[in-house]
Amino acid sequence: MTSLSETLSDSVVITKRNLIKVKRVPDLIVFATLSPIMFVVLFRYVFGGAIGGLPPGISYAEFLLPGIFAQTVVFGSTITGASIADDLQKGLIDRFRSLPMSRSAVLVGRTVADAGLNVISIAVMALTGLLVGWRINSSLGEAIGGFLVLLVFAYAISWLMAMVGLLVRTPEVVQNASFIVIFPITFIANTFVPLETFPAVLRTFAEWNPVSSVTLAARELFGNVPPGYPEPEAWSLQNPVLYTLLWTALILAVFVPVSVRLYKRTASR
Amino acid sequence: MSNAILVEELQKRFGSNTALAGVDLAVPEGSVLGLLGPNGAGKTTVVRILTTLLQPDAGRAEVAGIDVLREPDRVRSLIGLTGQYAAVDEYLTGFENLEMVGRLYRLGKRESRERAGELLERFDLADAANRPAKTYSGGMRRRLDIAASLIARPRVLFLDEPTTGLDPRSRLGMWEFIADLAGGGTTILLTTQYLEEADRLADGMVVIDRGRVIARGTADELKAQVGGQRLEFAVTDAGALPAMVELLRPLAVDEPHVDEQARRLSIPVSGGAEVLAEALRRLDGHTADIFDVGLRRPDLDDVFLALTGHAAEDDPAAADKTPAEPVPVGGTR
Ligand SMILES: Nc1ncnc2c1ncn2[C@@H]1O[C@H](COP(=O)(O)OP(=O)(O)OP(=O)(O)O)[C@@H](O)[C@H]1O
Ligand SMILES: [Mg+2]
């Protein structure tokens, strides 16, 4: 059995390896930064005028940005699955599995590197947001809390995607499959429009969708919810930070052990 | 002498497909075992089980005296593996690849870097050390892959078709290197489709087919199983063949084999060079028709053919997998 410090040092080696790839493959940086910028601009200026239902006193930019943050980091996590499948296909997982290294370091290193990528995209989006009228109206501590909630939730999704990558094994398929699942989940939520505009069934789904709670948590922590905004009815949205962290813990508790177990038995081919 | 690799009654099925139907192997410490077999024989499956990547359904496996199934962690720190397909990180440079593997073997930063430098030098990759492996040719990747498996100076090395895809010069270099390692005391299990390779490198050989061992021994022992040498002629005009057969029949120890299409004649003989000289004397009036003649001793191709009933490269899948054949396998020498 490997000790915790060995697991950590192996994970650092793997994280470094993954970040070198980010440096050498400009596509990844482009994906991590350009598409969120595009989203910000698209929603802010193209749809922004048409999307109604917002209470007076709040600009669409302020409402929108936390939603885009949430959607982008969740999508960013899907890279984990495709990268693991790629490593599997190229025989690298076989090589790692034949080494006396920690059995979880490959997955830890992968998810941590992808979280790093998410930090980059969130930073780029925040700067773009400030340019188009988004503002942080809270304390520094709360704002940092907002970014952390987003990143921690996305980190948990990375572990779910790691499992998908180990099961599906073809990077392109992982990418498409996760798009089909993640896309609706990030749209049937309060990310781009207020929940009050949803039909009843969708609304219930959206209220309990953790993407809604992470978005609302970020809105609250950035001070993007104006005073007098009606109190949500669902418990999940009355306690968005707690609800998001519960989901995060649940996802990690299930998918960390499942993915590590799969990794131990998986083999290329 | 103790065995560095010991395998007993190893079995593995994939669904209804039996990959290993009870394989036994023993590789003495410091020796090289050539594991031979046609496509799908089960070579890679044996290697994967011994390197802890795959769990067998039944049987026992020990590497360096350690049970592979009970203590895979200890086994991993003593072995090196070069799989059938090169496993290098394309985005890292050659140096970074080796350094990473060194670190994961827990060599420490300084030693990992030193070893990486040494091995890049040894494998003729020093010039490309700081280029991403993506820019390497197939042969360079292969060499980098093998270097990676050597970084921690493993006691037992597994090489799954190490020279597949290498050009003749790199192949010779690799053989030299493998021979060096073996000379230095590393135990090596080498799988190959190239009989010449096993003949050159291996102390002992095991031939498997459809998950079973069908022969084992030294190269000479295997050749002795197939026996006989042959006189082979290639002629310019197939019409000359019947007359030649009649002239040479007294020298044959078994039925001559005539191939009119290929304009070839093969006659089992015994007696070596004298028979060849005698045959040429008898063919005095026909030498104008003969464009090639040779005395051929059985090589491992014949062993293969005799044991498995099909040549090593019979399988069509083999043809597109290994575009670069090292020598015309089965050709006349
Ligand atoms: N993961 C797998 N799933 C299903 N079948 C498998 C798997 N791995 C191997 N097999 C089957 O097991 C048998 C032995 O395969 P193996 O790869 O060990 O052969 P090999 O001797 O290495 O062949 P080659 O020379 O083509 O590399 C084959 O019939 C193969 O199809
Ligand atoms: Mg194989």
From TrEMBL, chain A:
<feature type="transmembrane region" description="Helical">
    <location>
        <begin position="28"/>
        <end position="51"/>
    </location>
</feature>
<feature type="transmembrane region" description="Helical">
    <location>
        <begin position="241"/>
        <end position="263"/>
    </location>
</feature>
<keyword id="KW-0046">Antibiotic resistance</keyword>
<feature type="transmembrane region" description="Helical">
    <location>
        <begin position="144"/>
        <end position="168"/>
    </location>
</feature>
<feature type="transmembrane region" description="Helical">
    <location>
        <begin position="63"/>
        <end position="85"/>
    </location>
</feature>
<keyword id="KW-0812">Transmembrane</keyword>
<keyword id="KW-0813">Transport</keyword>
<keyword id="KW-0472">Membrane</keyword>
<comment type="similarity">
    <text>Belongs to the ABC-2 integral membrane protein family.</text>
</comment>
<dbReference type="InterPro" id="IPR047817">
    <property type="entry name" value="ABC2_TM_bact-type"/>
</dbReference>
<feature type="transmembrane region" description="Helical">
    <location>
        <begin position="180"/>
        <end position="202"/>
    </location>
</feature>
<dbReference type="GO" id="GO:0140359">
    <property type="term" value="F:ABC-type transporter activity"/>
</dbReference>
<dbReference type="InterPro" id="IPR013525">
    <property type="entry name" value="ABC2_TM"/>
</dbReference>
<dbReference type="InterPro" id="IPR000412">
    <property type="entry name" value="ABC_2_transport"/>
</dbReference>
<feature type="domain" description="ABC transmembrane type-2">
    <location>
        <begin position="27"/>
        <end position="266"/>
    </location>
</feature>
<dbReference type="InterPro" id="IPR051784">
    <property type="entry name" value="Nod_factor_ABC_transporter"/>
</dbReference>
<keyword id="KW-1003">Cell membrane</keyword>
<protein>
    <recommendedName>
        <fullName>Transport permease protein</fullName>
    </recommendedName>
</protein>
<dbReference type="GO" id="GO:0043190">
    <property type="term" value="C:ATP-binding cassette (ABC) transporter complex"/>
</dbReference>
<keyword id="KW-1133">Transmembrane helix</keyword>
<feature type="transmembrane region" description="Helical">
    <location>
        <begin position="106"/>
        <end position="132"/>
    </location>
</feature>
<dbReference type="Pfam" id="PF01061">
    <property type="entry name" value="ABC2_membrane"/>
</dbReference>
UniProtKB/TrEMBL annotation, chain B:
<dbReference type="GO" id="GO:0043215">
    <property type="term" value="P:daunorubicin transport"/>
</dbReference>
<dbReference type="Pfam" id="PF00005">
    <property type="entry name" value="ABC_tran"/>
</dbReference>
<dbReference type="GO" id="GO:0005886">
    <property type="term" value="C:plasma membrane"/>
</dbReference>
<dbReference type="GO" id="GO:0046677">
    <property type="term" value="P:response to antibiotic"/>
</dbReference>
<dbReference type="InterPro" id="IPR003593">
    <property type="entry name" value="AAA+_ATPase"/>
</dbReference>
<dbReference type="GO" id="GO:0016887">
    <property type="term" value="F:ATP hydrolysis activity"/>
</dbReference>
<dbReference type="InterPro" id="IPR005894">
    <property type="entry name" value="DrrA"/>
</dbReference>
<dbReference type="InterPro" id="IPR017871">
    <property type="entry name" value="ABC_transporter-like_CS"/>
</dbReference>
<keyword id="KW-0547">Nucleotide-binding</keyword>
<dbReference type="InterPro" id="IPR027417">
    <property type="entry name" value="P-loop_NTPase"/>
</dbReference>
<keyword id="KW-1003">Cell membrane</keyword>
<feature type="region of interest" description="Disordered">
    <location>
        <begin position="313"/>
        <end position="333"/>
    </location>
</feature>
<keyword id="KW-0067">ATP-binding</keyword>
<keyword id="KW-0813">Transport</keyword>
<dbReference type="GO" id="GO:0005524">
    <property type="term" value="F:ATP binding"/>
</dbReference>
<dbReference type="InterPro" id="IPR003439">
    <property type="entry name" value="ABC_transporter-like_ATP-bd"/>
</dbReference>
<dbReference type="GO" id="GO:1900753">
    <property type="term" value="P:doxorubicin transport"/>
</dbReference>
<keyword id="KW-1278">Translocase</keyword>
<protein>
    <submittedName>
        <fullName>ABC-2 type transport system ATP-binding protein</fullName>
    </submittedName>
</protein>
<feature type="domain" description="ABC transporter">
    <location>
        <begin position="5"/>
        <end position="235"/>
    </location>
</feature>
<keyword id="KW-0472">Membrane</keyword>
<comment type="similarity">
    <text>Belongs to the ABC transporter superfamily. Drug exporter-1 (DrugE1) (TC 3.A.1.105) family.</text>
</comment>
